[in-house]
What we know:
Layout: E1 5-9, E2 12-19, H1 45-56, E3 65-69, H2 75-82, E4 87-90, H3 95-107, E5 121-125, H4 134-146, E6 150-155, E7 166-175, H5 178-181, E8 185-193
Helix pairs in contact: 1-2
Amino acid sequence: MLPTELKPVPFVPEISLHLADQKATLFSGDFHSDQPPPFWAFAWAGGQSLARYLLDHPAEAAGRRVLDVATGSGVAAIAAARCGALSVAATDIDPASVEAAQRNAAANHVTLAADEPNPELVLAGDVFYSPSVTPQMVRTLRAARKAGASVLVGDPGRGYFPERLFELVTEYTVPVPAVLEETEKLVTGVWKMK
């Protein structure tokens, strides 16, 4: 397992996460090709932008049932909980991500549920990163929207983001590890599904 250290998130210093060293990559440490890379050990730009937006606009989550899909480290879910959400669930296809989100939530003195079948707000950070994942994420987010949930996505210009389905709420310049993104900052949008 990739070693981590509890430290403040660069763009959301109100939240601390167990993060990998700044020089670590997705394939650092005891990586095995039969396991997903440790996406949970990094604060990705999309999740950071959602967390910042929620903390700056707590009414978006306050008193609502929230679901953070593809939670990664859980930064957006933790922000929603800190904003007074009624309940917050963090899900991910990687069980290690859900465990990391739970560990990070405990470090920030909030609780995350395992699932939220009827969310009023759905969060998704950095989910449009490949042509195989995008159609599945679009179906998931559209289903939530059709069921009446608001859907917020944090996206730093990933190549497969279906912009036509969203409207831009705000943009941030988010610090990121250069070893992951080949830059130190990404302009990242917070988008609302139409």
